[in-house]
Amino acid sequence: MTQTTAEQHAGHDHGSAPVRRRARGVHVAWAVGATVVLVALVAVRAVTAETGPWGIPNPVQDLLTLSTSVIIESLPFIMLGIVLSVLVQVWIPESWLLRILPRNPWGRRAVISLFGMFLPVCECGNVPLARGLVRRGFTVPESMTFLIAAPILNPVTIITTHQAFGFDDGILIARLLGGFAIANILGWLFSKHPQPMSLLSGRFAEECRLDDGHGHDRTRREQSLDLFVRESSILMPALVIGSLIAGAIQVIVPRDVLVALGSDPLYSVLAMMVLAFIISVCSNVDAFFILPFASTFLPGSIVTFLVFGPIVDIKMLALMRTTYSTRTLVQLTTIVALLSLALGLVVNYLA
Amino acid sequence: MPDQQRATLWRHVQRWRGVVIIGVMGAITLWLAAVGQLVLYIHPRYILFTVIMSAIAVAAAVLALASPRQHDDEAVAPPSRRSRAVSLAAAGLAVAFTVGMVLIPPATLSTATAEQREINATASDDAETLAAASVADAETVAAFTVREWSTVLRQTSDLAFFDDKPVTALLGFVTADADDPENTFYVSRFAVTCCAVDAQPLGVPVHLPGWAEQYPPDTWVQVSGAFESNPSRTGTQPVVLVPTVVEVVDQPSEPYLF
């Protein structure tokens, strides 16, 4: 596989046989080198695992365990998101996606918010996908509608939420309808912005500008690997830093402070928003996380956790910052927080 | 270093940091799965998915390193020195964490988290567990884990209930009781529903004055004994386990309850 890529590349750039052969050699050397380094690192890992405790104090050790846990839980979803994003950008013809969409903006956003039904990815995997949609010509507000709705309105999340709660207290229904409504309201609000491109982070806007008229002379495999390089370069540091902060806050903030607030109609909702913000767990599995709290917390607060958490949390803000400007994220967080607070209060007073 | 070189270095870091991190983390995840330690971080039901996606990540990282470079990013003017510094710092921290995943031995959560999250603060299906426990035969009772006992203890303090239900080799790690740290400790386990982030500490109180000398916190023990009313004056638990045997054991390969 590598050799074919190398040949095609050499063919494009140079053409003469000796140069082509040398280029192929370089690429094979890189592949072998990378594999050797990875095997060596795993060998080091196997040796260091036996060296026993380093005398790391308990809280620091737990911080590392918690952060590693967030990363290992999110990593497969990020990878799946990158793979789907590559499919959408490189392998699926442009007309497919645009043809099925209605012309009217409300209808368009409504359909876009249901894209998640075919893309069973949680929120971290949706970041590369949303970036892919913007590059593919979707508007910035439409990408936000997708980003907010897809982690909630997707088959895996629906199944796990149903497994955890069934139809008790309307939690599942409120989560789905609430997520859909918030995504569409937010998309509509941002569509009123006079210059939607200014909602993006400077670097990503620059990338989108560069994309135009580029990459036509390259094979699809080259384009795919290039996208993988770019997306992982942007997302991985954000994921690590988000996970470290999430781990640190969990080591520092005592859990019982939040649990004590569980039975008050207003404070339980606020406590759950704080918990969702710091826990940073993926939407595909958060229903299992919150299930043990269901006996102490009011249903509205559970719904708020399940709607607010997938959209805004520490890890997600770090990931979204790769795509949207800080100003946009502050506005987005405020709007989503108010809407999910309202949703939680309504459920609490109805249920 | 001249400005030109610095900009080139920045561009290389910017381009390759993600591939390096995702490739190394993927490889370490595969190793964790191979030696059965992935359960320290995630619930067993996610292992297959995690392994498949990690394998794809490793393969993609190797292929990306070996594939021809696209040089379009050189056309872009490098950003300001300050934003380059922020970007380098982020990459440095992320790579340092990745190196930590290679060097620091994998570990289970400790008493620090158990105390911070408050033992037995949350639970589900209480009533069902109690109903099942009241009709359970001796063999089933002997196999009860910290999860079953802690649920039963939250539901009832009726000593008659515990009369014919002795505790046999209850496994867990030692955590001090916050209310009576001299005389009481908890045999505790973390219950995990999705990953270590959501670990809920569960525990059974054990009354053993001066326990800390023999069994310091974080030691894994197996306790046998019977439930009696709490002799402690300051303890808040009505019923505690009074041990006949406390045995120090190795940490089990699956330390969490799933």
Q: Could you characterize the architecture of this molecule?
A:
The complex is a heterodimer of chains A (351) and B (258). In chain A, helix 1 crosses helix 2 (17-48), helix 9 runs antiparallel to helix 17 (326-350) and helix 11 packs antiparallel against helix 16 (314-320). Chain A is built from 17 helices and no strands. Chain A is 74% helix and 0% strand. Chain A is mainly alpha-helical. Chain A starts with a helix and ends with a helix. Chain A is globular and about 75 Å long. Chain B has a 5-stranded antiparallel beta sheet with strand order 3-2-1-4-5. With 258 residues, chain B is of the alpha+beta class. Chains A and B meet through helix 1, helix 2, helix 3, helix 10 and helix 11 of A and helix 1, helix 2, helix 3 and helix 4 of B.
Give me some keywords for this one.
heterodimer, A: mainly alpha, 17 helices, 0% strand, globular, B: 258 residues, alpha+beta
Structure described in brief:
Chain A is mainly alpha-helical.
Which segments of chain B are poorly predicted (pLDDT under 50) over 5 or more consecutive residues? none
Alpha plus pi helix count of chain B? 9
Structural class of the helix and strand makeup of chain B? Answer: alpha+beta
- Beta-strand share of residues of chain B: 15-25%
CA gyration radius of chain A, whole angstroms: 23 Å
> How large, in whole angstroms, is the Cα Rg of chain B?
25 Å
Oligomer kind: heterodimer
Structural class of the helix and strand makeup of chain A?
A: mainly alpha
- List the uncertain runs of chain A: 1-15
Largest sheet of chain A: none
Order of helices and strands of chain A: HHHHHHHHHHHHHHHHH
Major sheet attributes of chain B = 5 strands, antiparallel
